[in-house]
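Hi L.,

You mentioned the student needs an example of a multi-chain input paired with its predicted structure. This one should do, with 417 residues in total across all chains.
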Amino acid sequence: MTNPARAIDISVGLFILLGLGSVIFLVTQTLGSAGISASESYTVHARFNQIGDLKNRAPVALAGVTIGRVSKITLDPIAYTAVIELRIDSKFNQLPTDTDAAIATSGILGGKYIELSPGGDETVLQDQDEIEFTQSAILLENLIGKYMLNRKPESDE
Amino acid sequence: MITALRDCWFSFSQFAATFGGFQMFSFRLLPYLPRAVLRPRLITEQIYSVGALSLVLIMFGGLFVGMVLALQSYNTLVEFGQTDSLGAFASEALVRELGPVVATLLFAGRAGSAVASEVGLMRATDQIAAMELMAVDPIQRVVVPRFIAGVISVPLLAAIFSTMGVLGAYLVGVHLLGVDAGAFWSQIQDRVDVYEDIGSGIFKSFVFGVSASLMGVFEGYYAPPTAAGVSRAATRTVVITSVWILLLDFVLTSFTLPGT
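Structure written out for the whole complex:
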């Protein structure tokens, strides 16, 4: 420390380390459980008629606990259905094959996520399997529209 | 009032008059940049005086901006029962906007003015002329290391500012106002995107760093070689950098914000 040039070097090094450290802090805080994709995971597919505003990296939850993420959203051009790829943590590889996948909304206006409800089958879902039972997203505006249309004839009577 | 208007007009007309010279100066710097790597010691010294010494100011500023942000937004969010998203709100604002902008403004006040007056004083005391006589290129020896040090320092300072801000918001939000700690962090994970938010924050702070440090060395290098000229160079560095950063921030935000 007697050498002033050395003291400068040390403080510059500490400064740069601190700066890079805060970048890493911010990145890890925001990535969070996206680390699931880095750890052991397996993928299953599910088809939906309507996915609403489901986004990539939306959580996949079972009984409210996040066990995976939506990793890919594509459209089947022949069947006109949305094909969702779910990446699920390998810790939860005991899902029965008749597991039901539904697109749910967190809160009234919150984001969409996929809620799984396990069935009673003895065989379990493997990597690249497809979930057969799905429930499409319920669009609030469609419900309101239907409600209003259905009321029309009643009020005429 | 009239003097304020006159000051505004003065800085504006000065800005317009020197804008062309500023462009020429930045182009003149370009060929020097690769060669500056040969003298890393010069750059380290400048990073020390420009970056490492600004650290206390930046950390303090970040911490308190984050704390105030949490207090302020809590008052609004509590009306909607959305206090859980306090963390996401504060960190998004910090990472995208406040971090780069406020850190650069503080940097301009702390380091930009110092660079301008230092280089200006070198000119005033004929040190730059002496270098030219000894066949030492003053741009290579004096200007470029300060410029590169600023470009390296500002993004780091902005990141430190944002981090301290998030920690400050955490302190106030969780320990003072009773927001749930888990909700605080998980909302940050949900809402803040690595590429869109942090990436654009880093990109912004890099652009701000280039312009802020260019401004400092330019004003200093072309300062009138008098005591008044040097002090005016320092003042103008702060004023012009602040105005320019705020303008640039609007332009960059409208480009990087999704959905616009």
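You could point out the following to them. DSSP finds ten helices and no strands in chain B. Residues 195 and 201 of chain B are 9 Å apart (CA to CA).

Best wishes,
N.
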